[in-house]
Amino acid sequence: MRKYLFLGISAFAIAIYLTNASWLAGTRSGKPTLIAHRGVYQTYNRENLGRDDCTAIRVFQPEHQYLENTLASMQAAFDAGADIVEIDVHPTTDGEFAVFHDWTLDCRTEGKGTTREHTMEYLKTLDIGYGYTPDGGKTFPFRGKGVGLMPTLEEVYRAFPDREFLINIKSGRPQEAVQLDNYLRERNLPTRGKLRVYGSEKVMEKIRKLRPDAWVFSRDSVKQCTYRYLMLGWSGYVPEACRNGAVVAPNTWHWALWGWPNRFLQRMEDAGSLVMVLDFKHRSPGGVHGIYTPEQIDFLSTDYRGALWVEKIEVIGPYAKTKFGLEN
């Protein structure tokens, strides 16, 4: 009896191994997808950073002249190798969508109050570089240089008709999904590829109903996907939460993902999802964040064909070109 039990367990273990053997899946075609968070932007000190803290007063000494969510920043990101640029949007009182990160204006600009409670006409008058200081208020290197640089969502799409963007809806109100859908349909946007959007799960549920072909995810859907796959992925099953969205592959425990790398990537690609590598080692109260340094992706093989969520595209773009053998 013990002999048959041992054989049964051995056969089951071999079946699981073969089901999840990466080498049997072969390598993926194409190239890695680089997602530039906020474009090229001024990075900042995340130590003891609270979710609502002003980051403009925590920036490091400037290494370049770009400010996040501006057309120049997006162009620089694409020039550095980005395939997709992540942007943040807010509806305005005059029917536009402003591309701006913060919920309020007080941190980065000379304006006051909630971003969405103003007209786009007013937002265009603000200096989005006003509040940046790397030395506790002694100097403000971007003050006066960001006047009128806050773009509308339409301006972004029109400026880059052959490029792709990932839209972050900052609100948790489902009605905002309807507003965004109407706004894009009236203007025949996006001009290339499918709509890519993420935000709160309630808003994303609405987007999925309005745009069944959209690429959509939320923090909740990513968590559900990861946890359920860890429990059931050994069987080859891909949870519903993992379909047509994003799947996170933390750079510290990617080994726990059944079939990593090639079998895992194949399953998620077949499910219509994009696997994104993030940095899980240097977590902050706001959650995990993207890739800053080449060392954070050195664990990836040269034939990796998923995505990278990148914070410093100006550093990672050129490095990825060499590491993965990317063409211009």
TrEMBL record:
It comes from the Bacteria. InterPro entries: GP_PDE_dom, PLC-like_Pdiesterase_TIM-brl. Pfam families: GDPD (PF03009). It comes from Microbulbifer celer. PANTHER family: GLYCEROPHOSPHORYL DIESTER PHOSPHODIESTERASE (PTHR43805), GP-PDE DOMAIN-CONTAINING PROTEIN (PTHR43805:SF1). Residues 32-312 form the GP-PDE domain. Signal peptide: none annotated. This is Glycerophosphodiester phosphodiesterase family protein.
